[in-house]
Write a structure and sequence with these properties.
By secondary structure, the chain is α+β, with helices and mostly antiparallel strands. The protein contains four helices and six strands. A six-stranded mixed β-sheet has the order 2-1-6-5-4-3.
Amino acid sequence: MDDVARLLETERIRKLAALYSHNFDRLDLEPLVGLFTDDAVCEFSGGKPLVGREAIRAHYIRSFDKWGKQGPFSTMHAVTNHWIELTGPERAEGRCYLIDFNITDPTVNPLVFLGVYDDEYHKVGGEWKIHQRRLEFAWPPRSTTAGAPGRRVPGRAAASARDAQLAPACDLD
């Protein structure tokens, strides 16, 4: 892939991250969920990994109920310092900083937390999608890793999948 093609692919992924924030903050559920692959995995705030679009959709419905009571843009997810590495023609990894604001009460500091999205992207049907997203917190509780695109630190979902391959089949729920 030449430099121009690489830049175009990188910019398409950067737009994906921006659309995630805009769709979340607008409380626009279907476009938000549509940014993920069918078999995507998300790990947020130490909870159980969300596997597949339906689990991700259910998570965002709960999030919208909690954070979107005052309507669109009650929260603002500002992403910055997006570092993207193309790892193949249809695969990429990235990390970006998240500054999360709750702007419902002007008398309260709006900063909720600082974090890092650690992502894997897959190109599906010619479009980049989020295949795996892990939110690591930098503040107030610190849970960030020193991973980097191309040198990712596996999350719980990856470790669980690896362990499941090694262990006999069992019902985990």
